[in-house]
Design brief:
The protein is mostly helical. The protein has nine helices and two strands, in the order ααααααββααα. Its EC number is 2.7.7.41.
């Protein structure tokens, strides 16, 4: 299983490099939007829409919402910062929800959560990419470092369960291991982007922490819906939503933080 996960991860990283650094910007941005819509397809069962036609309806609604959001941004009806602040508030609420689980998940709340997760994630990823593909890659590497560090540290030292009712395999030792790896990336980022270490370290650690919240939140919805994996796109990794749950949580905060930090 580990070899399969590594092979799939390497292939996904190669494809990502092609998207970020080879494809024309218009096509790359379309790929980002497509990723979000695949995420919507996999989110649909959380709201009780499991048949293909029902899933397509949910994807169409999300796609229409992306278009409406784009229109509102274009004409100044809403601001980018407002969308990201709302997203950060949502992820804080999700963190509280994780602490209170197990609790019932009403379908209407699953609908709202789907839009609160997917729309800001699309906007943040698209915006950061348009500014700098290298900066977007840096954000993704932070999220991956938090995940990879947590996986290996949890395997080696894991003892204290992080959220046993949601994801029994995750441990606090794993979180610490992931944050240690993120700290190294923060030091690298401070040098590469010429920013103070005292700013970059807590910023990167915050991104790492919120990525954990994203992972647990999607796991919460999967468990509530009785689903093990959101899909089977990536062998050994599950669905696409299983791969972007952490990114969806981290992206809005990263976009806000990079703006404030002048990155």
């Amino acid at each position: 299983m580990l070899k399969q996960r590594i092979f799939t991860a390497v292939l996904a990283v190669l494809l990502l490099f092609v998207v970020l650094f080879v494809l024309p910007a218009t096509i790359a941005r379309s790929v980002i939007a497509a990723v979000i819509l695949v995420g919507a397809w996999e989110w649909a069962p959380f709201v009780g829409l499991s048949r293909p036609a029902q899933r397509l309806l949910f994807v169409s609604i999300v796609a229409g919402s992306l278009a409406v959001l784009q229109f509102q941004l274009l004409y100044g009806l809403v601001t980018v910062n407002a969308v990201f602040v709302i997203a950060v508030v949502w992820w804080f609420a999700a963190f509280v929800w994780i602490l209170l689980y197990p609790t019932p998940v009403p379908k209407v709340l699953a609908w709202i959560a789907g839009f609160a997760v997917l729309l800001p994630a699309w906007l943040a990823l698209d915006l950061v990419y348009r500014h700098s593909s290298a900066l977007l890659l840096f954000m993704l590497v932070i999220v991956w470092a938090a995940d990879v560090g947590a996986y290996f540290a949890g395997k080696r030292f894991g003892n204290v369960k992080l959220a046993p009712h949601i994801s029994p395999g995750k441990t606090w030792e794993g979180v610490v291991g992931g944050l240690l790896l993120v700290t190294l990336l923060g030091a690298f980022g401070a040098s590469y982007f010429d920013r103070p270490l005292a700013m970059m370290l807590p910023f990167c650690m915050a991104i790492g922490l919120v990525s954990v919240v994203g992972d647990l939140t999607v796991s919460l919805f999967k468990r509530s819906a009785g689903i093990k994996d959101s899909g089977r796109i990536f062998p050994g990794h599950g669905g696409l939503l299983d791969r972007i749950d952490s990114v969806a949580a981290a992206a809005p905060l990263f976009a806000l933080g990079t703006h404030w930090a002048g990155l």
